[in-house]
Amino acid sequence: MAEPGGGPGAPHRPVLLFETVRLLAPERGGLFVDATLGLGGHSEAVLEASPDTRVLGIDRDREALKLAAERLSRFGARFRAAHANHREIARVVREAGEGEASGVLADLGVSSLQFDTVERGFSFRQDAPLDMRMDASGDEETAAELLARLPEEEIARVIYEFGEERRSRRIARWIVERRERGEPIETTGALAELVARAVGHKRGDRIHPATRTFQALRIAVNGELEGLDAFLETAIDLLQTGGRLVVISFQSLEDRVVKRGLRRLAGQCECGPRVPVCSCGARRAVEILTRRPVVPTPEEAEENPRARSAKLRACSKL
Questions:
Q1: Are residues 289 and 257 in contact, defined by beta-carbon separation less than 8 angstroms?
Q2: Closest residue by Cα to residue 99 from 54, 155, 42, 132
Q3: For the segment 196-210, what is each residue's pLDDT rounded down to a tens digit?
Q4: Nearest to 113 by CA among 207, 41, 56, 188
Q5: How do 286-288 and 311-317 pair as beta strands?
Q6: Closest by alpha carbon to 315, among 99, 42, 22, 23?
Q7: What is the C-alpha end-to-end distance of the chain, expressed in Å?
Q8: Structural domain range at position 300
């Protein structure tokens, strides 16, 4: 999945495709679980790598599953899909009757399909209902409903913690003041305009002033950071010895969780020298394959602006 940046209608390109396939090593054959299937670009490359590979694709977005299934139909029974959250990977694998996996991929963030579908409300480039749910068929709150319900302090906390927005309190105050006037924020355009007015928008600014606020609300609506640590642990447990885990993230909060999680799984304790017994859960279960995150080449970033913020980390199960 890719973060915003390519503009509406930009063609879907799997991010860091060559590096992902190299680190997953699908030529070994076996089961590969694409925990965030999206439009199926990475899975297609995995299936093409060897006739002995199988892919179980998971996604919370029914429309993405439908399109990916059409794209990968030529592989027949070697590809199967499941409508679920990536955090449910253990259940999905069990119900599919599968055992250990050769590889697991998680390409986190918003998919190209979601970002480019205006009515999904992920982008402030065009006015649309303020939705932001990755599973539009689910019963989660929309971003508009979240802003209509949360108190000012909680809105400020969400924007600060998930968007790393220094002016979160001012933005929250403006949102609540407008809500109290009987004018709730219900569209992407209304929110983008309010944030720009609240914090100021200078011509020539590198990013739109609402970018961090939109990121924060999207993370809150979809619970993107919830259970990410547990997902990493579960994914490793599902791998066979020598199996590979590859995770691509698009914002610093996610990458930080992945970096620390893989370190703990590699046996690096975070408790500190004064703690007599480790309580952080560190265990030597993997070898980290990427001492530094893999990032797009300048050529890929130029061709696919949505790849610019991508960071890939990988490990192999001991």
A1: no
A2: 54
A3: 999 987 666 678 899
A4: 41
A5: antiparallel
A6: 23
A7: 28
A8: 17-109+225-317
Q: Is residue 2 part of a domain?
A: no
313 has which bridge partners? 247
Are the beta carbons of 46 and 21 closer than 8 angstroms? yes
* pTM value surpassing 0.85: yes
**Among all chains, which residue has been given the structure tokens 């609506």?**
221
- Residue 293 tokens, joined: 């995150």
* pLDDT confidence of residue 305: 82
Take residue 260 and report the two structure tokens written for it. Answer: 């620390």
Q: Which of 244, 309, 264, 260 is nearest to 108 (CA)?
A: 309
Structure tokens given for 285: 């279960």
For residue 241, give the nearest of 85, 98, 83, 99 by alpha carbon. 99
The pLDDT value given to residue 168:
97
Which domain-ending residue is among 222, 245, 269? 222
The letter for the amino acid at 294 is V
Residues 22, 289: contact at Cβ < 8 Å?
A: no
Do 142 and 202 lie in one domain? The reply is: yes
How far are the Cα atoms of 49, 139, 264 from residue 84, in angstroms, in the given order? 26, 14, 27
Angstrom CA distances, 166 to 66, 75, 189, 282, stand at 40, 49, 22, 33
Confidence of residue 138 (pLDDT cuts 50, 70, 90): confident
pLDDT, position 278: 75
